[in-house]
Amino acid sequence: MADVMALGFEAASGGLFGIFGTALGRVAGFFERRQTHSQEQARWGHEYKLHELNMQARSQETEMELALVAQSGSWAGLEASIKADAGIGKASQWVVNILRLVRPALTLLLWGITAWIFLRTQNEAIAEAAVFAATAATLWWFGDRAPKPAKAA
User: Fold this and answer.
1) What pTM did the predictor assign?
2) Counting Cβ atoms within 10 Å, is residue 127 exposed (0-12), middle (13-18) or buried (19+)?
3) Where are the domains of the chain?
4) Which of 96, 108, 123, 134 could bridge to 114 as Cys pair (CB 3.0-4.6 Å)?
């Protein structure tokens, strides 16, 4: 009978040990899943930050491309202006002289208007804007008119 009791005790203790092992495995699995979830969250956070950085880089790249397009358009306008000025061709000397006086006459008129605005206005911002516009126009009209140095052969 002792053998049956020992056998029953062994079966019960084995069953309890099996249940305890299963429970221990489940608890360990819970902590393992929690750690895996934590690692996934960290990876997702990293991917999200990487995605944000990529978006910022694309945005900056787009802004730089727009600035380059605007700059090239500005240079194209200057080039067209210079070509139009050079393309007058053969004309009477008095016509060429009048055409060459347009820019200086407009500049004097612009600076006269700027001086009048500066003396008459009470608003400092308007006077500053007029001086800025006159300076920008003068530099645009005459800034690239200096004689080019002769190229060495």
Assistant:
1) 0.37
2) middle
3) 1-87, 89-145
4) 134
